[in-house]
Amino acid sequence: xxxxxxxxxxxxxxxxxxxxxxxxxxxxxxxxxxxxxxxxxxxxxxxxxxxxxxxxxxxxxxxxxxxxxxxxxxxxxxxxxxxxxxxxxxxxxxxxxxxxxxxxxxxxxxxxxxxxxxxxxxxxxxxxxxxxxxxxxxxxxxxxxxxxxxxxxxxxxxxxxxxxxxxx
Length: 168
Prior knowledge:
- α5 (106-119) links the parallel β2 and β3 (124-127).
- The protein has two domains: 8-64, no CATH class; 70-167, Vaccinia Virus protein VP39 (Rossmann fold, 3-Layer(aba) Sandwich), CATH 3.40.50.
- 44% of the residues lie in helices and 16% in strands.
- By secondary structure, the protein is of the alpha/beta class.
């Protein structure tokens, strides 16, 4: 897919990144659809400080996709996901993974719901909540928290969500 709202270089940057990472080239289409949606919503709602779509490929998509080899299936809670990073790229790359996008900011949660709907991500859902308030003890095999600063902070707010033997 070459979304007309994205510069042509964005698609080639993503294709090169997928090839370098050993990921399926077919992921480019839904990832570009997500990126186009993020760029469009970001103009109005300031979802991410990164504005340049090419930089978004590197700093958002490729960074998120770096986790793909380490997560096959099961459940994942993406705490403080913001605009869905890394949760949405992971849900796209791993359709067998059940992803919960945890975000307390209302405008970001609205974007997430729209992204999940438009992208047809049946394996993703949005929990508009603070991680520490989410009442789903030991429900997840994996936790991600890209925007949180320390491992101790992640455990403090979301440790109750991780099943015994789960992965951070």
